Every structure is written in structure tokens, then in C-alpha cells.
Amino acid sequence: MQPRTPLVLCVLLSQVLLLTSAEDLDCTPGFQQKVFHINQPAEFIEDQSILNLTFSDCKGNDKLRYEVSSPYFKVNSDGSLVALRNITAVGRTLFVHARTPHAEDMAELVIVGGKDVQGSLQDIFKFARTSPVPRQRRSIVVSPILIPENQRQPFPRDVGKVVDSDRPERSKFRLTGKGVDQEPKGIFRINENTGSVSVTRTLDREVIAIYQLFVETTDANGKTLEGPVPLEVIVIDQNDNRPIFREGPYIGHVMEGSPTGTTVMRMTAFDADDPATDNALLRYNIRQQTPDKPSPNMFYIDPEKGDIVTVVSPALLDRETLENPKYELIIEAQDMAGLDVGLTGTATATIMIDDKNDHSPKFTKKEFQATVEEGAVGVIVNLTVEDKDDPTTGAWRAAYTIINGNPGQSFEIHTNAQTNEGMLSVVKPLDYEISAFHTLLIKVENEDPLVPDVSYGPSSTATVHITVLDVNEGPVFYPDPMMVTRQENISVGSVLLTVNATDPDSLQHQTIRYSVYKDPAGWLNINPINGTVDTTAVLDRESPFVHNSVYTALFLAIDSGNPPATGTGTLLITLEDVNDNAPFIYPTVAEVCDDAKNLSVVILGASDKDLHPNTDPFKFEIHKQTVPDKVWKISKINNTHALVSLLQNLNKANYNLPIMVTDSGKPPMTNITDLRVQVCSCRNSKVDCNAAGALRFSLPSLLLLSLFSLACKLA
Questions:
Q1: Biggest CA-to-CA distance, the chain
Q2: Cα 412 from chain centroid?
Q3: CA 543 – CA 545 distance, rounded (Å)
Q4: What is the pLDDT of residues 356-379, one digit of tens each?
Q5: 400-412 burial, b for 16+ CB within 10 Å, e for fewer?
Q6: Where is the signal peptide (predicted)?
Q7: Domains with residue ranges and CATH for the chain
Q8: pLDDT for 162-186, tens place per residue?
Q9: Are 523 and 535 in contact (CB under 8 A)?
């Protein structure tokens, strides 16, 4: 068996020569010359030949097609490169892609002196075209494959070929990677015998721009002989995406009177095409302006940056003279650097002309008149102003101030938020008898400060003349409230005081009559002529109508006006306590077991409606307990409580024990209350008081009852 000769592989790609020597093949598919250099002309002339390209697929160039990286050029069937229109700047480099069903290649046209328009396709192709790839013995040499996106049927379509002049018998090619045996699977495949690489479907650069594949050779058993070697498939961008504005709504603001060239906002669009090509090189322009007054060109947009700026003089940008302070601009973004063949996208920009405070508020008249009845409060007049600024801003909203004529702070002024009027109010009742006329000086300003070249003038102040109308005012008690102090239980008919009411209408000569308005307990009477108040009943400090020892009554003073006016006065009577309430005990019922070891019966408390010193300390006693019947005992605990206890156990029954309690008043008062004591049967944790229904009397009571019965029999 002869030794294996060196394996020389070459991938015939969209822009690379077949990497074989002249002795390997008689014909080399591709361009005969790969790189051309021309000087940048003043202008490329339409349909004028620039240079001739020679391409051969070694099989007759059937169905030969050319594609140029710039849409402004084409290659005729005879290989001549011409411009489609007169054009000056096209960049530094053009690429020409030639394709037949059997081969394809790429040629590069270097324009000496050309200027960059945007990044060139050379950044995408990533490989040099000026020198052949060096051959390495028994190694696979590959270069990137370039495939335009959006290719149409038929598929599969050959895009390259691996050539092996010394390939061992029965050896095979194998292709792997994403797009082959990894997702997305099946896009590329290789003929294992011929080495032809083909694509099976349309590619989309915006989905995947570069595929990283690997090529290797294997023997008949699948064992790798050489490789894997990386193979890069680059998808060439086509202009298939329109620019879109993704950040709307676009709303900008500019202050009225802004200098020419003031930046309002920035509009930027997005293009999904390759940013290194003109396919994504955007230019902006304003398609429409609404409204088109006072100038159809109020704004300008930077074609490259998308900045919208003002282009009219500050005088035209006057919000108060504009037909509408809101402008809508239709902004267009166009790729291909704005050339006619570029795709477009539009969006609406709304620009608001914001108000500044360049107009001071002015009163609609110099003087205002108002009338108000004495004693009344509330709004008496609305002051009107005019302001040309924006009603939704602080440059329009008015703020009013009373600067003279209000020493007693009887007046206040506030702004009506809806109408911007000044609402002048009386907040302290006016008195006709003191002053029948008032004159106020009022100024108006804006919430926002005025611009430096505008100031408040004489029209920003106004005078208000106020006339006070006389009304019949009710009499006024003095003092009010009136206060007296008396002991409770004073005799009926006692004089408490004489009330005094005066008529504020000093210029009118009127008489006053008095009457009782509110007397909850019905204790009082008032003389209608002179106002003397006396009692009609006993005053009781402990009455429910008395609160904290104070009794409250109301009186009326009525003048003789037509109609009459009424005034109300309050009388507060402080009642001093006297000892007129006897104390009382609690509780009045108690229970005790007949066999109790603890002979304590109950703890009694005492209370008194009077005040100290007419209350405690209290004295507790058992009333009229005879010596033979002394089975009860009462002991003092403190000033208000005492303990009742037994001296011995009693039989099951009910007993009435008279308890006498005395307060500390001078003279003291005493109260006797029966304490009902139930002696119950207590057995096995059960208390039975039912059998104690019979009332047990003390021995003296039984003796009196016996004598009474005997007397009845003798009778």
C-alpha cells in the first residue's frame, strides 16, 4: 500500500479563489483579479463604465448573477461596473459578488481618496483578499463563507466546496456545528464525497449573523483523519428592515421667546439591519408641521443626531400670539443615509410652547364698590383681572393682597381658582356705629415671578369702597356671662341680681324688655322692666339640673325696634352646700351561714349627697339593741365603712337589724336603715336560704308583740 500523499483542502467561498495550485486544476473558478484600485473621481457618471470584471465558474458561466455592495452600482452581463445615477461619495470600498450554480466569488474595489460613509463590508468579511491562503501539508485550510440573506428558491444551493486532490480512498467530509447538527439544525450540509457545502433555506442576518461550523475528514469507519477546522459562515446584510421609533410618545417643551437654535428634544429611531453598513445609516427630516403658522418651518431636525431645534426668531415664538401653542411634527427616519432607495419610518413629535410670565395681571377697572350690613360676614365683592398668560400656570394665577385700609384685619381676600377673581370677604363683623365707610387698597400679582423685562404697573392695584348698612342689632348683656354665688335652700323670693343690657344702636332711642329664656328647674323670675332676678322656688344644689354646683339660666333682652331685635345673656349661679341630706348605707341585704366559723356578716359603706365637711367621717351604730339581745356587733373600718358581725351563731332565719349612720355636718344629720340579714343553711358546699323565710324578731319586739296580743284578747 502506497503512503498517503499530502492532503490539500480549500473551501471555495463567496470571495476566495480555489486554494489549489495551477498544476492541481486546469481552471480556477472565480474572479481573475480580486482587488482593484481606482482614484476617487469628482463624480461617478450614470451608465459610464468604471472597470471590467472577469469571472469564470469553469463551466460556461450559466446563470451568472452579480451583486454590488452599494445600491447605486450594478455589473452588466459583460462584466462592466457602472453607476446607476450621478453620485459623488460612495465610501472607500465596493464589493462585487458573482454567483453561478457552480461557483461564486467576491472582488474588492478600493477607491483611493474616498471618504467613509459608514462602516464598510470589510468589517464583516473579516478576511484578506490580497494574498492566497498558504497551503499546509496534510491540513484543512478554510476561509469564511459569505451568503447574502433573503435568498430565494431554489434550495439547496451550493455556497462552497472542499477540494482534495490527494484524498485517500473512501475518506469522507463531515460538517458539524450550530446550523448543522445543532439547533437550528439542517441549515447547512456538506457532500461527504465531493466536499460541496450547501445552504438549505433562506437566511436572516437579524436572527443569526454568523454561524460557527467545523469541517473534518473521516475514514470509512467515521474516525477523524484531519480536523476539525473552524468554518465561519457570515450572512451578508440586505436592507430589509425599516427604521422604527420605539420610545414614543415623543413630547417636547420649549419656552416661548426662546433664542433661535434652542434644542427642544431628540428623536432617535432603530434599524435592525447591520449598523456597519448604510442599511442602518439613518437620516432624519421633518415631513409635516401642524399648524403651519406663523411659519411652515418653525423647527429643524439634525439629520444625523435627530435633535429638534427652533429656527424662528424669539418674537415669532410668542405663545400669546400663536394660533395654537401645540405643534405636531411628522418625523421621518430613512436608512441608506437618506438616499431615495432607503426605507423609511415615521413618528409624531408633539411640541408644547410653554408659557413664561411676560404679562402682568391688570384689574379690569380702577375702583370697585361694595355694600355690607353691619354684623354680617362673607364675600362682599369679586375683583376681576385680566392676564394673557397660560391659565394653567402660575404665570396666570393671581395672588391678591390688601395693602392699606385694614388695620383691624376685618377683611380678607382669596383667589377663586376657577375664575382667577379676587373674593373680598368680611371676616370680622363691622359696626355701623363705629364706621359707616371703609376704603381698601388692593394689589394683584402672579404666583410666578415676572420675567426681568416686565414689571407690575398702576393697573395692578385697585381701590375698593365699602359702605356699611345700619341694621337693628340686638341688645347686649354686660357682663356675659353673669355670675352670682348663693347658698342652696335660700328663701323663695330672694333677689339674686339685676341684669344689665344695652342697645348697640346708639343713634336709635329704643327701650328694652327682659324675659326668661331657659330656666331648666323653674326656679327664677325676671322683672321685664328693670331686669331684677329673684327666686320662685328653693334652690337645691343636689338637683339633677345643677352641674358641679353651678346652675345655668338664659335671659332675653328685646328692644323696641321694628322688627324687634333680641339679645341673649347667660346667668351662672354657684350654689354653696348646706347639710340638708342625711347619709345612707349600702348594701341593705346580707347573708351568713348558720354554722359559720367567721362571724363577720357584711362590710357597710355610707354615702352623702352633700359636700365636705357635711359628709364623712360617718358614725355607724346599731339602733336600740337591748342587752339580752346583743348578738350583733358593728365596728368602724374607716371614715366611710364599718363591719357588721355576729357574737354567736344564729338559727336559720331572716333578721332585720336597724343601722343608724350620722354625718359630720353642723348640725349633723342621721339616717336609720334596716339591714336584712339572711342566716342560711350551708351543707356540702350548698347554701340554702329558702327556709329562712320566717322573719325573726329581736326579744324586745317579741315582748311588745305579746303585750299587744294580750291587750286584744282582754278587749
A1: 177
A2: 34
A3: 5
A4: 999 999 999 999 999 999 889 999
A5: bebeebbeeebbe
A6: 1-22
A7: 30-112 (2.60.40.60), 150-236 (2.60.40.60), 244-354 (2.60.40.60), 362-468 (2.60.40.60), 476-576 (2.60.40.60), 584-688 (2.60.40.60)
A8: 666 566 778 889 999 999 999 999 9
A9: yes
